[in-house]
C-alpha cells in the first residue's frame, strides 16, 4: 500500500501522525499549493482540511494525482 498524507492547518492534521500518516502542515493557501506540488513519491491518499481543499480547487481533479478526501467542516 502507498503512503497516506494529511495536508492542511496544524490543528487539524497533527493528530494523524499518531496513525502513521505523514503530516504536511500548510496554514496558508500558497503553502498548501507548494506542498501539493511537492508530494513525495508513492503517495496514494491525501487527507485535506476544508481550507486546503479550497486552496487546491480544480487541481484536485487532475488525472494522475492521488486519491483525495476533504475532512468535514
Description:
With 73 residues, this protein is of the alpha/beta class. The chain has a single domain, classed as 3-Layer(aba) Sandwich (Rossmann fold). The chain has helices at 10-13, 29-37, 50-56; strands at 3-8, 22-25, 43-48, 67-70. A four-stranded parallel beta sheet has the order 2-1-3-4. Helix 2 (29-37) packs across helix 3. The mean pLDDT is 95.
Keywords:
single chain, 73 residues, alpha/beta, Rossmann fold, 4-stranded parallel beta sheet, 3 helices, 4 strands, 27% helix, globular
What's this entry about, in short?
The chain has helices at about 10-15, 30-35, 50-55; strands at about 5-10, 20-25, 45-50, 65-70.
Write the layout of secondary structure elements.
Blueprint: E1 3-8, H1 10-13, E2 22-25, H2 29-37, E3 43-48, H3 50-56, E4 67-70
Parallel strand pairs: 1-2, 1-3, 3-4
Helix pairs in contact: 2-3
Amino acid at each position: 500500500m502507498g503512503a497516506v498524507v494529511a495536508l492542511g492547518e496544524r490543528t487539524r492534521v497533527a493528530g494523524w501522525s499518531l496513525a502513521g500518516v505523514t503530516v504536511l502542515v500548510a496554514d496558508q493557501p500558497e503553502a498548501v499549493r507548494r506542498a501539493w506540488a511537492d508530494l513525495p513519491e508513492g503517495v496514494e491518499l491525501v487527507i485535506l482540511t476544508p481550507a486546503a481543499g479550497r486552496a487546491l480547487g480544480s487541481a484536485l481533479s487532475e488525472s494522475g494525482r492521488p486519491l483525495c478526501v476533504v475532512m468535514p467542516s
